[in-house]
Amino acid sequence: MYLEILTPETKVFEGEVEMVQFPGTDGSFQVLDNHAPLISSLSKGVLEYRDKKTTHSVEIAGGMVEVLNNQVIVLAEGTLQ
Question: Cβ(24)–Cβ(30) under 8 Å?
């Protein structure tokens, strides 16, 4: 599936991934290939995604995610250092 992570300042990541795990406002959840359509709010926490080689993590300050037709778009309020 294709993942884009965007903040108001920059595009954090764009590319093919196998899995994404989110810090949802009601608890963490995971999205895999061919997931049902979804829109959800995100809380402050760690967003993890795995490509074919390794798992990466980005700490976000909150935001929204949309999953549709194997495309995942994350609109994050910002990333935390």
Answer: no
